[in-house]
Design brief:
- The complex is a heterodimer.
- Chain A is an alpha+beta fold.
- Chain A contains 12 helices and 19 strands.
- In chain A, the strands form 3 sheets. Chain A has a 10-stranded mixed beta sheet, sandwiched between helices.
- In chain A, helix 3 crosses helix 4, helix 6 packs across helix 7 and helix 7 crosses helix 8.
- Chain A starts with a strand and ends with a strand.
- The relative contact order of chain A is 0.14.
- Chain B has one domain: Alpha-Beta Plaits (2-Layer Sandwich).
- The chains are: A alpha+beta, B alpha+beta.
- At the A-B interface, helix 9, strand 14, strand 15, strand 16 and strand 18 of A face strand 2, strand 3, strand 5 and helix 3 of B.
């Protein structure tokens, strides 16, 4: 029997109400919400430090108020990693909201165990070097120990357990994105944890769904002339129809704009993928090179032939570190002699950056000329306008503010006809979070599930 | 008009830490054979210049007639550290598809 998964969130801030037409139209059996990019947890840590009852995504309030009542009435489970750094607090917030709405008998599961920030010393003492995946440097040998987050990517198992225990809403923190979508398939079909081909098929299905609009015509270069620009904010979010053998069809919410074609599926299939024969997740290593795509009919693409290999022994851990602050200024420079004026301006700025102790990195680019394409972009000979963006960093905010004040003293002594964007002069420094991706033995990680209920 | 890689293919960029991948998806089977033969990792690395500090590795997907280029050190330290205005590197696929293709 076909099982239907809807995907209504691909990042913190996505339009989660796209779940409503799926649910009200009777088009789905479960809906998943993926809210956590690599950076999101560091953003949520700021909220949690300010208030220990925060640290989850605010989209969850919208899910609780607008979507949960409709889903609960129809016994459609919802799954989200929007619990961020605080799934228990998120679950408590949802429980209170649901109780006020009279959703008696509602069962919420909060999954934890991914957050290892407080456990890092213990893990290092147990022999984990937490070496950086790209540079090989050991965490203990790094000079910067200002860690703000450290979360392990969990697999689908705790979500499967919660669904089988009858949870109507499963709230997690960090879970590998496609595993959010694999979980309801394992719970529904009863696939074994060593059924590598089917698990891999579920991962590919999740990978295609997890970026919502990106598989239905959003962000699509291939379909840039096929999608009506005015339809983009209203795209029907994706739904997969999955069979017990792991084959599935990707489609979209019926009656809404968007397209699902071989092109949109190929674009999303390779999004954020490295070796396509070894797409590593906590539950299986999926091989994208054996699958076949078939355009079934309008806006239906069938995926078959996915294969998988045994899961890895280690889990991925991503830590976030505070690495200082940055400021940006934008200057406009016009013809004539625009390049000569740029030379004057850069000489002036460089002098201030050298005189100001604590300035670390400085980067210049010309908006509209080479800010996106760097050395790929040819520089024009005698441009009518050049917009110079300069970004500079320091460990503390005061150094950056002092540098801006110094730069502004040259207002009447700089290049002819130069101006500065006032909003950039008045802006506050932005903090820089550096990521530390590493691996950890899965034996150290035990997910926990807590259940909250609205009494009947 | 200059013929460009974009005439033969489309693609999308994705970021993970300081690593970007750029898919190059052929518009036709004939284009795929041409790209597979001539669009080497070395050529992509040379074209992208200072955008990519590390190596470029190419993967082939005959099943969907696409190539996947994994570019190390391509995001100025990663989305959260980058000083680029496009800190996620969303435009990198465009940078590659801009390659002149006068074969």
């Amino acid at each position: 029997m076909t099982y239907r998964i809807g995907s209504a969130q691909g990042f913190y801030g996505d339009d989660v109400t796209k779940a409503l037409p799926m649910i009200l139209g009777g088009h789905v059996d479960v809906v998943c919400f993926e809210a956590l990019s690599e950076l999101t947890l560091a953003i949520l840590q700021k909220d949690k430090l300010a208030n220990p009852k925060r640290g989850y995504t605010f989209d969850l309030r919208v899910i609780a108020q607008k979507i949960l009542p409709e889903a609960f009435r129809r016994k459609i489970p919802l799954i989200t990693n929007g619990g961020g750094l605080n799934p228990p607090a998120a679950a408590e917030m949802v429980r209170e909201t649901a109780a006020q709405m009279g959703l008696h008998g509602l069962k919420i599961a909060a999954v934890t165990g991914d957050d290892v920030l407080a456990r890092l010393p213990e893990l290092q003492a147990a022999g984990e070097t937490l070496a950086h995946l790209e540079t090989g440097e050991r965490l203990a040998d790094s000079s910067n120990q200002t860690l703000v987050t450290a979360n392990v990517y969990l697999g689908a198992a705790p979500i499967v357990e919660a669904l089988q225990a009858g949870a109507d809403l499963v709230i997690t923190g960090r879970v590998a994105d496609p595993c959010l979508y694999l979980a309801p398939l394992v719970a529904h079909f009863g696939w074994g944890w060593d059924d590598w081909d089917r698990l891999a098929a579920g991962i590919v299905c999740g990978h295609l769904l997890e970026c919502t609009g990106q598989v239905v015509g959003g962000n699509s270069l291939a379909l840039i002339h096929d999608i009506n620009p005015a339809d983009l904010p209203n795209l029907g979010y994706p739904i997969a129809h999955v069979e017990a053998d792991g084959s599935f069809v990707v489609t979209k919410t019926p009656g809404m704009p968007g397209r699902v074609t071989l092109e949109t599926v190929k674009e999303q299939l390779l999004y954020e993928v490295h070796d396509p024969a070894h797409y590593v997740t906590p539950d299986v290593v999926a091989d994208f090179t054996t699958l076949r795509l078939e355009a079934d009919s309008d806006d239906r693409v069938r995926v078959t032939g996915v294969t998988g290999r045994p899961r890895p022994d280690k889990l991925k851990l991503n830590a976030g570190r505070l690495e200082g602050f940055m400021r940006e200024l934008i200057f406009t420079i016009g013809w004539p002699e625009a390049w000569r004026k740029v030379e004057q301006m850069k000489a002036m700025l460089d002098m201030f950056f050298q005189k100001q102790p604590g300035i670390e990195r400085v980067a210049y680019s010309y908006l509209g000329i080479n800010s996106l394409y760097g050395s790929v972009a040819p520089l024009p000979d005698d441009p009518l306008e050049i917009i110079v963006r300069v970004v500079f960093t320091a460990q503390d905010q005061e150094t950056l503010k002092q540098a801006v004040r110094q730069i502004m003293t040259t207002g009447l002594s700089g290049p002819a006809g130069m101006s500065v964007s006032g909003t950039t002069v008045g802006a506050e420094p932005r903090y820089i979070i550096g990521l530390w991706p590493t691996l950890i033995d899965r034996a150290h990680i035990t997910p926990q599930i807590d259940y909250l209920e609205v009494s009947a | 008009m200059t013929r460009r890689l974009y005439d033969l293919a489309y693609g999308r960029e994705g970021d993970k830490g300081n690593i970007a991948n750029i898919s190059v998806i052929a518009r036709t089977s004939q284009a795929y054979q041409e790209l597979k033969a001539k669009l080497t990792a070395e050529r992509v690395k040379a074209h992208l210049g200072d955008l990519v500090q590390g190596e470029v590795v190419r993967y082939e997907l005959d099943n969907i007639e696409a190539l996947n280029f994994v570019c190390y050190g391509a995001l100025d330290g990663g989305a959260t550290r980058s000083l680029r205005i496009d800190n996620l590197g969303k435009s990198l696929a465009g940078a590659l598809l801009y390659m002149a293709w006068d074969e």
